[in-house]
Design brief:
This protein is α/β, with parallel strands linked by helices and 287 residues long. The protein is built from 14 helices and 5 strands. Helix content is 47%, strand content 8%.
Length: 287
């Protein structure tokens, strides 16, 4: 039944909802989207949005249904098929560029489902990354653990990020779990780096236009728009990059991050907090 015929059967006040439902049900899933992955608050939104602006491509910034009713954890645990997950989010998967950090844990399923797709992985220093996550949730970084009143204010999708033991990760408190999650995400890139284009958030901050230009060239995309007037738009609520790590986390929690993330930090060129810019807010990347 065509939408025009369907419209005759739907009462006037319900027509907008019916039209939206029709679009969702009939939209075509993009067989080879560009997938932008990485940990939450690593710069994925800004980088993906600017890439879409420069190239004129359509974009999904986070899967809308997963914000309040996350199901990616069910896919990871085998409780929901990946095909059903894709179909449930078909409108978001119809776009040219899809940015969703939670898809990082499903990278192997993505590779199998979208074999011709191109992948981008956004990397950020774990100390800045974890601090930005906590800033987003208005949580301090120097506590020995979160109390019930803290958890009560955290949205459903973010609870799965802070308490990520369902991924098989271990930690005594929220800092250790967030550090374990960062390392888990870094492992995703390191194990599949031949299939992913890496862009470091620290490099992006130094030369936003240059990095997005290089990324579009690497992905063989045409550059159709000037993004000079868009590079400083906050695509997500910004954190406080000026605070020193030691002031935000305290000695014990900062040491936890170094201990848990040290191996992947070393492989990816990030100095430990005991060297160089030990307690600074500037990046310590040494690639």
């Amino acid at each position: 039944m065509q939408i025009r015929k369907l419209g005759k059967l739907v009462p006037g006040p319900l027509k907008p909802l019916a039209k939206k439902a029709w679009v969702v049900l009939t939209v075509r899933i993009n067989p080879n989207p560009i997938l932008v992955l990485g940990n939450q608050k690593s710069g994925t939104s800004a980088i993906a949005a600017l890439l879409a602006e420069m190239t004129g491509l359509s974009i999904t910034i986070d899967l809308k249904s997963q914000i309040n009713y996350p199901t990616y954890n069910q896919v990871y645990k085998g409780e929901l098929s990946f095909s059903e997950f894709i179909n449930n989010n078909r409108l978001d998967f119809s776009r040219d560029i899809i940015k969703e950090p939670n898809l990082t844990i499903l990278h192997q399923e993505l590779i199998e489902y979208f074999p011709r797709s191109k992948f981008v992985f956004v990397l950020r220093d774990p100390r800045d990354n974890i601090r930005s996550i906590l800033d987003r949730l208005k949580l301090p970084g120097n506590l020995p653990g979160l109390k019930q009143e803290h958890w009560a204010k955290i949205p459903p999708a973010w609870k799965l990020i802070l308490d990520c033991r369902w991924l098989g990760l271990e930690g005594e408190n929220y800092i250790e779990l967030l550090a374990a999650r960062w390392s888990f995400m870094a492992d995703v890139f390191l194990k599949s780096q031949d299939k992913m284009r890496l862009i470091c958030y620290e490099d992006f901050l130094k030369d936003k236009i240059g990095e997005i230009t290089r990324l579009s060239q690497d992905l063989e995309l045409k550059q159709v728009n000037d993004i000079a007037d868009k590079v400083d738009i906050p695509f997500q609520p910004p954190g406080n990059r000026n605070v020193k790590w030691i002031e935000f986390f305290g000695h014990d929690n900062l040491a936890c991050i170094d201990r848990i993330c040290c191996q992947n930090m070393k492989q990816l060129g990030y100095l430990p907090s005991s060297q160089g810019q030990a307690y600074g807010a500037d990046n310590a990347k040494n690639l």
